[in-house]
Amino acid sequence: MTSTDPRPGTGRPSYGERLAAVTGRRGRLCVGIDPHPGLLSTWGLADDASGLEVFARGVVSAVGDLVAVFKPQSALFERFGSAGIAVLERVLADVAAAGALSVLDAKRGDIGSTMAGYARAYLDDGGPLAADALTVNPYLGLEALEPAFTAAAASGRGLYVLARTSNPDSAQLQLATRDGRTVAQTVVDEVQARNDALRPDPGSGVESGAAGPFGVVVGGTHGQAELDLSAFDGSVLVPGVGAQGATVADLAERFSVPRLLLPSSSRGVLAAGPDPSGLRQAVTALVAETAVLG
Ligand SMILES: O=C(O)c1cc(=O)[nH]c(=O)n1[C@@H]1O[C@H](COP(=O)(O)O)[C@@H](O)[C@H]1O
């Protein structure tokens, strides 16, 4: 397999390959689309599905040519029921039309048989909610997520598996240890094992230099800290930049693997709207900061 080979049957390069291509052109920044009621109000919009649509599609229209990855927050679309989901479908289409990648932040995770349903909704070709990648929650077990790993690999999509989340109380669960390893480290290692399983056999003579399609989420608020990412070769989604207090410069200091990082900011960028030029300035400044990540 070469670095440009499509996945079997999809005609689409792998998520790792597509991420490398778009971040190479646009810089390594993910902008979260989090339509909070307070932001809709600041933007002078009604807190209803029509306000949601103007807000979310307005973000993509303003900065869609500058941003490598958009991460719509499903919860803040779901709160408007089917009308909100319909807006989310249109936002995902807008992101694709803008040449950016979408990470749908839905943090799904359930027992395997139910997970297969989520995989069909978010990771199969033809699904209206299919994004380029999906955030998933491994705390029912990594095996339970298997349908999502399988569907993502088959369709050239990615997953971001929650490892060490940005909220202050995440340590109680995620830093618990078993057999000398933290739960968060176990997640990282298990995700890497699934990336390794997709690598061509080293003896086969075919090469793939691309990142694995399966990433992890590590909050920028505490950084890499106790995690060992030295053997990890997926993308590391790092939320917490901006409103939660982390800066891109902090990430350069707090992580030993800056080349893997995909920093993400939602409210920090969105507060610069609704003026499109304000949003463009905010994005341009953050993208420039990401240059320190190499
Ligand atoms: O998976 C995520 O994106 C995520 C993981 C995490 O550990 N912390 C975290 O804040 N997030 C999400 O990232 C976004 C952060 O938004 P801001 O704090 O406004 O930048 C929200 O949509 C969160 O749900």
From TrEMBL:
<dbReference type="InterPro" id="IPR011995">
    <property type="entry name" value="OMPdecase_type-2"/>
</dbReference>
<keyword id="KW-0210">Decarboxylase</keyword>
<keyword id="KW-0456">Lyase</keyword>
<keyword id="KW-0665">Pyrimidine biosynthesis</keyword>
<dbReference type="Pfam" id="PF00215">
    <property type="entry name" value="OMPdecase"/>
</dbReference>
<comment type="pathway">
    <text>Pyrimidine metabolism; UMP biosynthesis via de novo pathway; UMP from orotate: step 2/2.</text>
</comment>
<dbReference type="GO" id="GO:0004590">
    <property type="term" value="F:orotidine-5'-phosphate decarboxylase activity"/>
</dbReference>
<feature type="active site" description="Proton donor">
    <location>
        <position position="107"/>
    </location>
</feature>
<feature type="domain" description="Orotidine 5'-phosphate decarboxylase">
    <location>
        <begin position="28"/>
        <end position="282"/>
    </location>
</feature>
<dbReference type="GO" id="GO:0006207">
    <property type="term" value="P:'de novo' pyrimidine nucleobase biosynthetic process"/>
</dbReference>
<dbReference type="InterPro" id="IPR011060">
    <property type="entry name" value="RibuloseP-bd_barrel"/>
</dbReference>
<protein>
    <recommendedName>
        <fullName>Orotidine 5'-phosphate decarboxylase</fullName>
        <ecNumber>4.1.1.23</ecNumber>
    </recommendedName>
</protein>
<dbReference type="InterPro" id="IPR001754">
    <property type="entry name" value="OMPdeCOase_dom"/>
</dbReference>
<dbReference type="InterPro" id="IPR013785">
    <property type="entry name" value="Aldolase_TIM"/>
</dbReference>
<comment type="similarity">
    <text>Belongs to the OMP decarboxylase family. Type 2 subfamily.</text>
</comment>
<dbReference type="GO" id="GO:0044205">
    <property type="term" value="P:'de novo' UMP biosynthetic process"/>
</dbReference>
